[in-house]
Amino acid sequence: MNPHLERHGISQRALDIADKVETFVREKIVPYEGDARCGAHGPSDDLGDEMKALARDAGVMTPHILEGGDHLTQRETAAVLIRSGLSPLGPLACHTCAPDEGNMFLLGKVASPELKERFLPRMIDGSMRTAFFMTEPADEGGAGSDPSMMLTTCKMDGNHWVINGRKTYITGAEGAGMGIIMAKSDDGACMFLVDLPDPAIRIDRVLDTIDSSMPGGHAVITIDNLRVPADQMLGASGEGFKYAQVRLAPARLSHCMRWLGACVRANEIAGDYANRRMAFGKPLVDHEGVGFMLAENLMDLKQAELMVYWCADVLDSGAQGGAESSMTKVAVSEALMRVADRCVQCMGGQGVTADTIVEQVFREIRAFRIYDGPTEVHKWILAKKIKRDWKALNAD
After folding, report:
1. Which helix (H) or strand (E) is 1 found in, with range?
2. Phi and psi dihedrals of 164, rounded to 5?
3. How far apart are the first and last CA of the chain?
4. Residues 10-21: b if buried by 16+ CB within 10 A, e if exposed
5. pLDDT at 167
6. Residue 315 near residue 328, CB atoms below 8 Å
7. Which residue, of 16, 156, 227, 297, is most buried by count of CB atoms within 10 Å of its CB?
8. What is the band of 5 on the pLDDT scale with cuts at 50, 70, 90?
């Protein structure tokens, strides 16, 4: 158990699960980090299946969802997902990765009993990957950080909805068994659950991106007259943005959890290197330029951890946590970027090689600063809140 990971205020059941996950990731999954099946578009599905089989044997498959379907609290989930993130492959192996983790959470909250029975068991046991289809190509004027710009349409035709549009950056679409598609009707945004693959959903290409931890990569998609039975809509027509909010804050936070774990591990590797590597007559760690960077890492890691648990407590109180998750996403992603950068710098030339995960963690964290909204969008949202609150206080 890493001494820098929080234990106070967490239930014993969550600590037991978290410790079990950490042992599994360090002992069984870390050795896979140099596997040739870890490609530019993410780990291959056969590698994922192999690691998931080990997770099932170890009793750590989808560890944040308990037997019977109960979900850990957000504070408990944080303790577990941080540990799963100690390797970039850990979330895939333990099935705590995006977008599956967020999709399971959403279905558990809002899907009909019939849709839960149809999709959730295969999601929870890790036998099916999923995708979330929202973002659209910028050069076509589609939705990105502003979901109100959505161009993908859905129209009723008998007892089916017909969906047409284009999507991009769709994580894990290649190889997924189910997708959640956002489109707009005359009433507003809608969400649909669809089986994959489907001939009406075409993967135009899988993008070459800076990150490489998510199976299936990030795809550009064309949806051409996709027919979806009416009972596969989540909720009612026009309620899609409401359901997106159910998923949004927890999904933002779970990104913070997983990548915090990755940076804890990267810092361990950098610290080990700095203690072993000799230069100018003494270990690197004894040179203030290096030792101080590692000290700053400890501070950033602890502050990031405390932000994660604070936001988790807000969500556990029943609040939607939009502003709090925005603050946490910005603070944590920026802090982890500093940590990852310092790890590379402390290790010098070794830090930019693939001999350790440090360079990959650096790449993944750079992408994380954009996932679920870039820093600037969250700051803008918070600034709008400041103005709104000021107006409310000065209404008279």
Report:
1. none
2. -135, 140
3. 55
4. beeebeebbbbb
5. 98
6. no
7. 297
8. low
